[in-house]
Design a protein that fits this description.
This protein is an alpha+beta fold. It is built from 4 helices and 7 strands. The longest helix has 12 residues.
Amino acid sequence: MTEQDGKVQEPRTLCEYFSQWEDFEDTVFYDEFDAAFMGFGWQFNVGPVAVYNQDLVMEILMEDGTSEEDALEHFGYNVQGSYVGERTPIFLTNVNDGAVSDFMKRQAGAEISGWSREVGDVVWVSKGMREIS
């Protein structure tokens, strides 16, 4: 929170919100993709890295009527293709393929389970694994 003209202002972006903590000082955020933010990724000796849902980023890029082809070209060159340091954001692509689930079941002897939650127009899905006994 910041104070302006004696009034406390709530952060307007994720970058503003997380800048309150020193651990996130060098984390790179793309404000225009706040709605596609999923969380953080961590690597050895690297602080938090913002993770965005690539499908939602593409939707955001096409909101103004941009074609999927143009949005994909822009994303590939200007967003994903832009290295801004070791904390360059990660763009997650979900693999929702039955063949992958079948493979995981065979290899791990596990059953895929999950939950979903609808928030506005977005359905969040989390997958987990549990052993089959």
